[in-house]
From TrEMBL:
It comes from Pedobacter terrae. PROSITE patterns: UMUC. Belongs to the DNA polymerase type-Y family. This is DNA polymerase IV. Monomer.
Length: 350
């Protein structure tokens, strides 16, 4: 979806239309931007930016708190639209999913036409716009979906994939974040063509097991299937302090609240995990994590809290001021690597 949260706000409140809208914390709070409308993005406002910074860039912007009930309702309506065309739907978030249309339920006959039909249904029924990428695998479809936003539709066929990937800047590769992108550029790897010059062994030596993934996707190889019932990999929660702090009592109190939230979410989904991860974001926005694994799965708030306290102590933050704390529980399943069959099916990502 295009600027999803902000677009829903502009749809539901006509007075917001055509104006810069920022969904997230108020400008005088310590929140961050969840989504910015395209009008707000013209001022340089982006997701994850501190709300105070967004206000500096555009004092006339309309700041609103997220309405997750409204976004969830739209997400359910989107899923219903998708299901008319295929049963193989892998959600990535409330507003994003992979669709495998090998089994064409309506007999349309073209993945490109299916994507356009879905876009039309979203616009006509929900009064919102979506951008779609159409290709032969998940990675290329995902990249294509970001090419012509908003309201875009990009098709990258098999004969175009390698040339397309060679021209693509490394920061546009899905899964390549700021840190990896900076490392690649320091190595004079600026485009897919540069990345393609390295052997698989060289990439693994530089980027670990991700190197094997980069070696394949720069050649347009991605055999991951669309998983209609994708299992959750982690459950977590986090919160930001009203003021930066390094006081143990204050941090312990917040960790207790977060632990209880995580435990409730685990109970809701009937999950237990073996690995607890503590996330610490400092006043200068530096981020660190600390993890510990158990021999058997856990899901109780008291155990999660006790472990988070130990991890906080091991982090030895001293007098450094902390902005945010978060806890994540993972390793719900002991995944077994399986050889995936070759696939030439058409998939597209909304």
């Amino acid at each position: 979806m295009d600027a999803f949260y902000a677009s829903v706000e502009q749809r539901d409140f006509p007075e917001y239309r055509g104006k810069p809208v920022v969904v997230g914390g108020k400008p005088d709070s310590r929140g961050v931007v969840s989504t910015a409308s395209y009008e707000a993005r013209q001022y340089g406002i982006r997701s994850a930016m501190p709300s105070s910074k967004a206000y500096q860039l555009c004092p006339t912007a309309i700041f609103v708190y997220p309405r997750f009930d409204a976004y969830t309702a739209v997400s359910k309506a989107l899923r219903e639209i998708f299901s008319r065309y295929t049963d193989l739907i892998e959600p990535l978030s409330l507003d994003e999913a992979y669709l495998d249309v090998t089994e064409d339920k309506l007999g349309i006959g073209s993945a490109l036409d299916i994507a356009q039909s879905i876009k039309d249904a979203i616009k006509n029924e929900l009064n919102l716009t979506a951008s779609a990428g159409v290709s032969i695998n998940k990675f290329v479809a995902k990249v294509a979906s970001d090419m012509n936003k908003p309201d875009g539709l990009t098709f990258i066929g098999p004969s175009r994939i390698e040339a397309f990937m060679e021209k693509l800047p490394v920061e546009k590769f899905f899964g390549v974040g700021k840190v990896t992108s900076a490392k690649m550029k320091a190595m004079q790897i600026n485009t897919g063509a540069d990345l393609k010059k390295l052997t698989e062994a060289q990439l693994i030596a530089q980027f670990g097991k991700s190197g094997r993934f980069y070696y394949k996707i720069v050649r347009g190889i991605d055999d991951r299937p669309v998983r209609a019932n994708r299992e959750a990999k982690s459950v977590g929660a986090e919160d930001t302090f009203s003021e930066d702090t390094n006081e143990d009592a204050v941090m312990h109190d917040l960790l207790k609240q977060i632990s209880e939230t995580v435990a409730k979410r685990l109970e809701k989904h009937q999950l237990s995990g073996k690995t607890v991860t503590l996330k610490i974001k400092f006043a200068d926005f530096k981020l660190i994590t600390r993890s510990r694994s158990f021999a058997t799965p856990i899901n109780k708030a008291t155990i999660i809290y006790d472990e988070a306290i130990k991890l906080l102590e091991e982090a030895a933050i001293g007098t450094t001021q902390v902005r945010l704390l978060g806890i994540t529980l993972s390793r719900f399943y002991d995944d077994v690597e399986m050889e995936k069959p070759e696939s030439n099916q058409l998939e597209f990502e909304f």
